[in-house]
Amino acid sequence: MRLSPFRPLLAGMLLTSATSASAIGLDQITGNVYNVRANGPQTSPTGSGVVIGPGQVVTACTLLAGARSISVMRENVTYDATLAAPDIERNLCLLKVPNLPGSGVSLPAGSTAPGLGQKMVMASAASGAVAVREATVTGLQASNDGKLTTIELSAAPDAAANGGALFDDAGRLAGILADDGTPGKTRQRAVPAAWVRDITTRGAAALATYRPSVNDNRAASPATVPAPNAADGSPRVGEVWQYVLTDSLTNRRSDVIFRVDRIENGRVIYNQGARIERADGTLERINAPSAGEFDAASPPSGWVPANVKPGARWKYSYRQPGSGAQTDLEGSASGESEMTVAGGTYRVIRIAYRGYAQKPLRPFGAGPIMTQQYKAVAWYAPEIGRVVKFEASTAQNAEKLELAAHRYE
Fold it and tell me: Which domains does the chain have, with CATH numbers?
């Protein structure tokens, strides 16, 4: 008897009669897969992670959007985790998990691609148990250099499987199940397991600027902050915008840094693809929110409409990136004024929003989802094309984001 395609089997059930499962071994399937949860003010779906070494878990970066803390769980045991290295472009993040048992699965030595129609086994964690599904390879995608980038499987997408393991029929780790959040996909996808070896190298530079340092109250002196302009080459690779995010509930402060890593085809790539803007400063996409409500609740085109002028009014209706929460807002722009923040003094346009958003009834993602009143104000400085201050609030919480420094590295 073989595993029926798409049928989940919980850990602890008899798997020895299933050909693919027995070829791999029950311990290999279930012993190295954990549930991963991002804890924060947004309601985030839980997913999976794979142990790839002592105290090391790899998962999909999309699971960590807006995380204030990260937990790795299985069988009612929870371990605290921290981000060790992000590879946002490939949607692979490495977690450091102290005291996690086990040595992990073996990584493949090369990047050999599976064959079309080949039988595979997917392992993911949900509700304290490990689910195993059999699927076949239905498609393979490669980059321009011919190297494998995506494995498409016959199984339907499963949110809990995001970050889980893909084994081939010989028991080798072939891929990491990774959903990039693009709507409309009907097939489960995975990225090559060989990419796991590159996470630390590719994420080392991004980590220094992407991960905020908590409770760091230092702010740059306005005298040290040059105003960006075309003569300075703004935007340019190595340009850094540093903000301070303050949670009014806990008064916790953290640095939020946006660093320009690449500029290509009129697109400005920040934090290794976590944020992508157009050359004029308007938002194209947020792949990994890191700036609290400013990122997590952002309208698809950003908080500042193109060519905004005082007196303008508009409406937005959208689903928030990451959480998928429905949000309906009315925006308006009022007259210009002068504002001083830690990062300098600017002429700003005040952009105010009022409306409703789906939020947890209690802070930090706890409780049922309720539609709540939502307010936000962005102070936008046209001379630098940036929001220099942002405030957002619901009945339960409020946040403030303020520009602290601008520099070139």
Answer: 9-200 (2.40.10.120), 212-408 (2.40.360)
